[in-house]
Specification:
This protein is α+β, with helices and mostly antiparallel strands. It contains 21 helices and 42 strands.
């Protein structure tokens, strides 16, 4: 909301030295965040001048300029070159003299006026257009003051005359404070903050109700059980002159408030909307057929709105209709058939109050946000409709030369605000500030509420607080307590750091493990990301064909209406986005939840969004939620190490994914091992099944498949515009936490020397190396401290279909020095186990 200071000062006392910063500071105190400042970018001298002569001079470039003599109230007239032709001798214009500063293309690039030689003359200033002065978009000619109905003295300060010395503050208005989308609301809040005297602009209007115009609300399909229109006031004004100019003070205020000037009748309706917060619509009375009916649309109806679009209406849309059919989308935008135009002489004014949910749905359904819908969907004061209509009548009579007509109507079925029970000590107990009952009462009365003692049948010593009509957000005692805290000052609320409870409480083991995993991957150089949990059905099918997924009824994106079953598709989307921005070397990871339905999940019974579900409905919704397990996933592509002097670049690949899996295992105290695996989205020859194995306190081992690692199928990589090699890994974090031991302790430093030996085994080529290594480890016994695959040879000297796997083995005893015979015996025991399981033979 943009608030011009001159307008604000009409309804609340501002100090003489008021500044934009002080107004912002005052409004921040009562909860309105500052956004920006606007206006006051012109500096003088800018004065009123009268054209004495205007001599046209054709130029060699085909353009004709006017060499003008202009009286600016100085002893001698000024000579000025002007390229416009919509003026002549005797016209009063705005002259910017050397030294003046006008708005430039950007705030940091203003246009400074100086005497300069052009077209063979020295132009001693400039005659301004509306655009150059920041008054509007008109640039076909210079601004003639007579067109604005002005006849000031020559030499008058034009900045003050045209309201160009005004400025505006812009604040952020939260959705629950729709009353602040008006000068009336902001002035009241400024008064609350500073104690300045507030004058209600609605109370300054003397209302004369109209009669004789038929209005009917026929709402057979109300939203939330409430009729679409609770208030509908109409008034008529006859004989206006729509061609009259909008006064500069009004045009200036509208411009500062962010609304462009259109025509005097339309500008007046916008002006009153901004002043009182009540949207107003004007109809050309001559174009109306009969009375007005407010009703819901029927299937197949259409309406051409003021923006020229023909819209197909929905059965929930609330319409303004006459005998000819729809003439407006209620609370959103009027129709073209009854639009105010240059031929309008008689105007029917509408000031209504519409249901907020209905208006919000219509505006979103038709993608048609407007200043009116913005206010209605946040709640408009029903008591201000009649004063707003009267204010428009008064301005049309005063500025447009119209005559107030007794024709009109008053329909008011609004419901008075519901009193809220409040104990006087409730604010002190809830906020922690020792508010006195007198302070609480005076604060509530300050915001416009009435406070009365509760009847004897109610809570002893309690109050019944009736909120003002402009505060539909005050519906319970908590919201009243918030008002007490806001108005008396948030700075009174003490800042107290909570004490950590005794007993070693803090993160749960699962939470701590998840944090360790994230810290481990980040320390290894990967970047944590958060992907959207919503995927398309095709993305889920690509990774898990035929898998059940949860479909959202009201998805943010209709193309991504499924909850993810895996973190990998989201990582691929993020990788695509980063590649498109030139980041070709990526190491990404995410720790998050996935949604894997089992059996029947979800429900087709969706409650109405504006109603709170009852306990039975909440139970149904809770039961419909699928299991949400924790996963950790990582992606690697591009170069793991860049090219550097003396060493080539090291590309990312499967080894990086496997290493990340091992690091995750270390962070959760679980040994993660890889075995040959398969996955529908991963390369069949470069996919590993990840298994977790731990030894429990009883000495027994346990093993479980906890994830997968591999390289993305080249066909999928090409489809997603990704490099050919994209390494991926995903692990079930819940399973790792379950298998991990919280009492893991560091192994003691060995004091005995180690014995190392190599073992080369010849096995069929289809036998996975990891399974052979596991057999060697199992057979070698307790003396084996470490084993690793160091070579995979396939070539001369081996039988057809065979390969040689070489393992580096390290043996150590805790209490003695091993002999070569001890190490060889253990090594051969491992070889024997591999021979038994896979037919391995020792290669000499």
């Amino acid at each position: 909301m943009r608030v011009p200071l001159s307008w604000l000062g009409e309804w609340v006392d501002l100090p003489e030295d008021v500044s934009l910063q002080s107004v912002h500071a005052a409004l921040v105190k009562v909860g309105f965040e500052e956004e920006d400042v606007h206006g006051a970018v012109l500096t003088g001298p800018i004065v009123v001048g009268r054209v004495l002569e205007a001599s046209p001079e054709p130029q060699s470039n085909g353009k004709t300029i006017n060499w003008c003599s202009v009286d600016v109230g100085e002893p001698e007239p000024r000579g000025i070159v002007c390229g416009a032709h919509n003026f002549g001798p005797g016209d009063k214009v705005v002259v910017t003299l050397p030294g003046a500063v006008l708005p430039g293309p950007t705030a940091s690039d203003p246009f400074v006026i100086a005497a300069r030689k052009t077209y063979g003359h020295v132009s001693d200033g400039m005659i301004g257009s509306a655009r150059e002065l920041g008054l509007g978009d008109e640039h076909d000619g210079i601004l003639r003051l007579a067109d604005l109905g002005l006849d000031p003295e020559v030499g008058t300060d034009a900045i003050h005359l045209l309201g160009l010395d005004d400025a505006a503050v812009e604040i952020n208005v939260t959705p629950d404070r729709g009353y602040a989308l008006s000068i009336r609301g902001v002035a009241r809040e400024y008064g609350h903050s500073t104690g300045a005297a507030f004058r209600d602009p609605a109370a300054a209007v003397t209302v004369t109700p109209g009669s004789g115009f038929e209005v009917c609300v026929d709402d057979a399909a109300p939203i939330r059980g409430a009729a679409g229109a609770s208030v509908f006031v109409t008034r008529a004004v006859r004989g206006i002159d729509p061609g009259r100019p909008t006064p500069p003070w009004m045009a200036s205020r509208l411009r500062l408030a962010g609304i462009r000037s259109i025509s005097l009748p339309v500008d007046i309706t916008n002006y009153v909307m901004l002043e009182l917060g009540q949207p107003i619509h004007g109809y050309d009375l001559a174009k109306l057929s009969g009375g007005i009916t407010v009703r819901r649309a029927t299937a197949g109806e259409t309406l051409q709105t003021l923006d020229g679009q023909v819209r197909t209406l929905h059965a929930e849309d609330l319409l303004i209709t006459d005998d000819s059919g729809p003439i407006g989308l209620a609370g959103v935008m009027g129709g073209a058939t009854t639009e105010l135009s240059a031929t309008t002489r008689d105007v029917l004014i509408e000031a209504a109050n519409f249901d907020s949910v209905s208006i919000a749905r219509t505006a979103r359904r038709h993608k048609l946000p407007s200043e009116a819908s913005r206010r209605f969907e946040r709640g408009v004061d029903p008591a201000v409709a009649a004063p707003a209509a009267q204010r428009v009548v008064d301005l049309l009579v005063e500025l447009a030369g119209g005559t107030a007509d007794p024709l009109g109507s008053v329909l008011d079925e609004s419901v008075a605000p519901t009193p809220v029970a409040l104990m006087p000590d409730r604010p002190a107990r809830l906020i922690g500030v020792p508010y006195t009952p007198e302070e609480v009462r005076s604060t509530l009365e300050l915001i416009g509420a009435t406070v009365a003692d509760a009847p004897a049948s109610g809570a002893s010593g309690g109050w019944l607080v009736t909120p003002p009509s402009w505060r539909p957000d005050l519906v319970d005692d908590a919201s009243l307590v918030e008002e007490v805290a806001r108005i008396t000052g948030y700075d009174r609320i003490p800042s107290v750091l909570p004490q950590a409870p005794a007993g070693g409480r803090g993160l749960t083991p699962a939470q701590a493990a998840r944090r360790r995993v994230g810290a481990t991957l980040a320390a290894a150089g990967a970047t944590e990301v958060l992907a959207y949990p919503f995927l398309s059905a095709a993305a889920i099918e690509r990774f898990e064909p035929g898998a059940a997924s949860v479909r959202l009824v009201n998805a943010l994106d209709p193309q991504a209406d499924r909850l993810r079953r895996s973190l990998l598709p989201g990582l691929l989307d993020i990788a695509r986005r980063n590649l498109g921005r030139g980041l070709t070397d990526l190491a990404l990871f995410e720790v998050g939840t996935v949604f894997r339905p089992e059996g029947e999940n979800g429900t087709d019974v969706i409650p109405v969004g504006a109603q709170r579900p009852d306990e039975a409905m909440l139970a149904v919704l809770d039961a419909s939620i699928p299991a949400q397990g924790w996963r950790v996933a990582a992606l690697f592509l591009g170069e793991a190490l860049p090219k550097r002097p003396g060493a080539p670049a090291v590309p990312s690949g499967l080894a990086d994914a496997l290493d990340a899996a091992r690091q995750i295992g270390l962070a959760t105290a679980v040994r993660v091992e890889a075995a040959q695996g398969s996955h529908p989205a991963l390369h069949p020859g470069r996919t590993a099944e990840l298994r977790a194995s731990v030894t429990g306190p009883d000495g027994r081992g346990s093993e479980r498949v906890v994830g997968v690692a591999g390289e993305l199928l080249p066909s999928i990589a090409a489809e997603l515009d990704l490099p050919r090699v994209v390494a991926l890994v995903e692990l079930d974090l819940d399973a790792l936490v379950e298998l991990g031991r919280a009492d893991v302790q560091a192994a003691p430093v060995a004091t005995m020397p180690a014995a190392t030996q190599d073992l080369s085994l010849v096995v069929p080529i289809e036998v996975p190396a990891g399974e052979v290594l596991a057999a060697v480890i199992a057979g070698a016994g307790a003396l084996l401290e470490h084993a690793a695959l160091v070579d995979d040879y396939r070539g001369t000297g081996l039988p057809d279909g065979g390969r040689s796997l070489t393992f580096a083995l390290r043996f150590r005893a805790p209490d003695r020095t091993l002999t070569a015979a001890d190490a060889s015996e253990a090594k051969l025991a491992g070889a024997a186990r591999a021979a038994e399981l896979y037919g391995a033979t020792v290669r000499e």
